[in-house]
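Sequence in, structure out.
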Amino acid sequence: MSAPAITPVFVRLKLSLLRNGLRQSGGRKAAYIASAVFALLFAALQLIGLIALRGQAHAESLIVLAVAVLGLGWAVMPLFFPSGDETLDPTRLVMLPLRPRPLIRALLTASLVGIGPLFTLCLLVGSVVAVARGGAAFAVGVVAVVLALLVCVALARAVAAANVRLLTSRKGRDLAVLSGLVIAIGAQVVNFGAQRIGASGLGELDPVAEVLQWVPPASAIAAVHAVGEGSYGLATAQLALTAGALVALLAVWSRHLTRLMTSPDGSTLATAETAARERSSTGLGRLLPAGRTGTVMERSLRYVWRDPKIKAAWVTSLAIGLIVPVFNAWQGTGSVYFACFAAGMLGIQMYNQFGQDTSAFWIVAMTISSTRDAYVELRARAYALLLITLPYATLVTVVTTAMLGDWRRLPEALGLSFALLGAMLATGAWTSARFPYSIPQEGYKNVAPGQTGLAWISIFGGMIAAAVLCAPVIALTIWLNVSAEGDAWTWLLLPVGAAYGAGLTAVGLRLAAPQTARRLPEILVAVSKG
């Protein structure tokens, strides 16, 4: 008696998971429907745009690059969104009597159900229509679309199977939180590339496309274009390469799947030696001041390194603070003043200091019994931020100045950065005490439900206040630059900006300390809501 086919069972399972997930809450259903409508609308617009490229010079280069980026997206999707599809975790099937090959067929088929595969299908169909010339090219295009879609799905599955132990651990959740960083950096790279293409035309992509046409799944679409050009040997090689990549991915997936379903999970178990080494590590503490100041600084720095959301916020700020001024300087359209973006991005980390502690803030609250205790607590947190922000803001300013070759403006750019940083530390300390809000520990939300207004007031209100506080230094900078004899005195902006920023920080901490000591119960309630 032959075993029943499991592929239809897995397809029904995938549909049941989607249906039951939407039944959990009205909000989740609304979010899913909205995202589905947006994705499908975007896919339709992309399909129309790709078809409109038909006949345009160098259009095939753009399409090959787009399909390669699409494949990259499928590769990294399981790493950054491990909870997006519950069937990505094959360890849930360990106790079932399933063999790898039938299981792979069933999982591969079930993976074709969803918004992502439909979006990919629309993009691939539009790509084939844009590059195909003649009936033979369209016939090959049908095969190319199927191969490219299967490569994308198999790539995602192979990556998920290879990293499933990581993705289901705490470190995997840390990695998922960093997806915002990839999106932020990717947006800047796309913006930079679009500006270069807009200035020089699609011909700029030809050298990149020459390489990517041999990288699956882009090689399948390149084969369609090759058939239209009469290069049947080239098209055959590119299709064979895509098919070979699919076979290799299925083999890798099968090997990891077999290993997962037959070996124990020890990925999250630290050895006794490693745990002892971590407990005995006190190198950071020896470099910090003694007493409460050093203790608070060490705790804050450890949060930056260990807490997933705090780490993600810091890494994103560090990356964007460097990318914006450097990319603009690289294009020759920037200014040394863009370096202040680094100080602004890092200064945001001072906002909602107590909310970052979440429910653990009650331990801190027990150690604050006076305004002096609150002042030392806030001052130590500001010191911890300055350990990173001061050298980093200086480095970004120097790099931007070097790329632009405008060394004369380095002192004033540094002075403005230091003044802005001091203003944000001052307003951040005050809003942390006056408008605290909770940061949920699970999921991707950074604000607990019902506290969005507090977050807006805290961050954007504080940023506006910081800009107003920097007005004297900004006015002085403008006056020295427009004055006939001001160029000889612009170097003064560096000590003036540093002293002004330090003074603002001191005043802000002094004003925030009594607020913190007086409002401890309210702060504790606010930050514990998540």
